[in-house]
Amino acid sequence: MVVVIDPGHGGSDPGTTGAHGLHEKKVTLEIARRVEDILSQHARIRVVLTRTRDRYVSLRQRVYSSRRHHADLFVSIHVNSSPVARVSGGAVYMLSAHGASSIEARAVAHAENGADPDLSGVPLAPRHKQLNSVLVNLAQAAAIRNSDELGADILHRLAKVEPLVERRVQRANFEVLRDLGVPSVLVETAFLSNPEQAHLLHGAAFRDNIASAIADGILAYCHVHPPMERVNVSRGPKQNVADDNR
Ligand SMILES: [Zn+2]
C-alpha cells in the first residue's frame, strides 16, 4: 500500500508565516516526517514524501510523483492562516466536483493554489481528454467518496488534539487534489496566524500529536479499504488511461 504524504510548500515558497518567523514549509515537513515515521512501522505500508527537504516542488510535480509511485492515497499537509487572530483549529479538505462548500473553503483553496502561479488554468492531465468521460466520472466518483471517508477518519482523530474549524470534511477545488484518481485530502493542521497555535507549532509535542492523528486516520482508512478494492475501483480507469494513449 503506497501512501503519499505531501508536505506543503518548500524552498522559495514559504507558505504562511507566523509569529517569530516560523514558516509553514518548515512545519509541514516536520509533521510529514513524523507521519512517515509512524506509518513506516507498518510492514504493508510504503510511504513516499513529495519532498524530503526544503526545496520548491510544483503542484504538478507533486501529482506526477504520486502517479509514478502508484499512490493508493494522497495526504497533503498544510498550516492555515486567517486575518482574524483568534481563529484556530484544524480542518480537512477534499476535492469537490461542484466547487467549494463555503466562502472560507474557496479562500483556502485560492491561497494554497496560488503558491503555484504557473499552474493556474492549466489542466493537470491533458491526456485525460482522450479518455471516455464515463470512466473519468466513475473514477472521480469513487475517489471523491473515498476521500470523504479518509478525511473523516483523520478529522475524527484531529478533534482529540485541537478544536475543529468545521466538524465535516470541507470541499474545495485544490489543484493538488484534482484529477489524481485516488483518495486525496488536504489537512490544514492549525493556524499559524493564531498566537497560541503558533506557539504550539514551535514545539515538537503538538506537532507529534497532529502527526499521530493524521497517521491514525490513514491507518483506520486502510484497515477498512483492503488494497484489492482500490485496485478494482481506483486503478481500473487509470489502466485505461494508458491503453487510451497507446
Ligand atoms: Zn499551505
Describe what this molecule looks like in 3D.
- The protein is α/β, with parallel strands linked by helices.
- It has one domain: Aminopeptidase, CATH 3.40.630.
- Helix content is 45%, strand content 14%.
- Strands 2-1-3-6-4-5 form a 6-stranded mixed β-sheet, sandwiched between helices.
- It is globular.
- Mean pLDDT is 81; it is low at 117-132 and 229-246.
- The protein binds zinc ion.
- Zinc ion (ZN) binds next to loops.
In total, the number of domains comes to 1
In what order do the strands lie side by side in the largest sheet? 2-1-3-6-4-5
Q: Which geometry do the CA atoms define? A: globular
Count of helical regions = 7
State mean pLDDT (0 to 100 scale).
81
The largest pleated sheet is described as: 6 strands, mixed
Q: Whole-Å distance between the termini?
A: 27 Å
State the order of secondary-structure elements, H for helix, E for strand. EHEHEEHHEEHHH
CATH topology title: Aminopeptidase
Structural class: alpha/beta
How many distinct beta strands? 6
Share of helical residues: 40-55%
CATH second-level architecture: 3-Layer(aba) Sandwich
What ligand molecules are bound, each kind once?
A: zinc ion
- Per CATH, the class reads Alpha Beta
Our Rg estimate from Cα atoms comes to: 17 Å
Strand proportion, as a percent range, falls in 5-15%
